[in-house]
Amino acid sequence: MSESDDRIVSIKLRDFQMLLGNYQYRDSRIDYAFKLLDDRLQKTRHWLKASREVASFTYDITEESLRAMVGLAASVCGVGIVEAEAYFSELLEDSDFLDKISKAKGECKYANELDETAKPGHRMFLYAIARIKKPKIVVEAGPFRGFGSVFLIEAIRRNDLDGFPGEIFTVDIMNAFDGDIVEACGYGAFRKVRVGDATEFIENFEEKIDIFLSETHYSGGYGKQLKAIEGKLQQGGVITMSALDDELYNFSKMFGRRYASFYTEAVNHIYQGQFCCVSY
């Protein structure tokens, strides 16, 4: 038998062993696959019966996800874990504020698309960094129904009470502001609304931006916004995006900035969780 024939036989034998291995563990593999499918189906059944949400999902997150957000907020803002954790606790323990959001979601124009819950999920991160950094200017692109905006506005409102005034500009190409969650909470006066393209808004914006949040999801949107924001960020400014995006990574690399991402894993929900990325 030639050397090439030996090699062919060896390859065939490995293939056979792999097939045999799959056959040996077939039952356990099938059980595992169906267990995963059954879990998803159970969550789907519960969600379809109990929820009206079509977007901006609300859900509890795992303790591991919460710790990851606390740790990243501390790193982004240059503070210790204890200080960062205190702001997360401040939000989660404020039952009056969370109850206000729940009530507003039930009374706003989009109530038929929302659940009357105030589980902030990844939005806790936005609240915490706004509380720690005490920004003068926050720009939010793509606020949609205003659920994320409420947490940013509450952070800015509390900063103002502490003697650190700030402003938030929310810009969206769709005019969905009237009757949204922010209005229903009575927080409309705390934001400056702009209807139009976020990139054009940034290009014409004359003040330095401390925190820029983008939740826009149209093709090429992130890259255009980042190109526009170059030179518009305050020293130490933070950019956050509610998706993993190569553009923000490359932007951070090009300008010598730090980059990180985190994932908030949802608990007992059809929506598995949310990736977010940060440049600072």
Automatic annotation (TrEMBL):
GO molecular function: methyltransferase activity
Keyword set, alphabetical order: Methyltransferase, Transferase
UniProt cross-references to Gene3D superfamilies, sorted A to Z: Vaccinia Virus protein VP39
SUPFAM superfamilies the UniProt entry points to: S-adenosyl-L-methionine-dependent methyltransferases
Record-level GO BP terms: methylation
Source organism, top-level taxon: Bacteria
Designated name of the protein: Methyltransferase domain-containing protein
Origin species: Azospirillum oryzae
